[in-house]
Design brief:
19% strand, 73 residues
Length: 73
């Protein structure tokens, strides 16, 4: 059950929702269902915190579309 981030197109509320199966999400403010799923950011442990090294600088992933292209997927 993934957690998604949404923006309501009706009232502009941004929120997270735990999506179960085919269940449709609703805005907690206006109960609207016209939602835009947002690109979520995530944390990557750094080598300074004892974790694995994070990703390299932008453009070092090897995406054939060029620097910054993988950030828009």
């Amino acid at each position: 059950m993934p957690i998604y981030e949404f923006a309501c197109r009706g009232c502009g509320q941004r929120f997270e929702d735990l999506v179960r199966g085919q269940e449709a999400s609703r805005c907690p403010r206006c109960e609207g269902t016209d939602l835009q799923r947002l690109i979520s950011t995530f944390a990557v442990p750094s080598s300074a915190s004892g974790g694995e090294p994070g990703p390299g600088a932008c453009g070092s992933c090897g995406d054939p579309r060029g620097p910054g292209a993988c950030a828009t997927d």
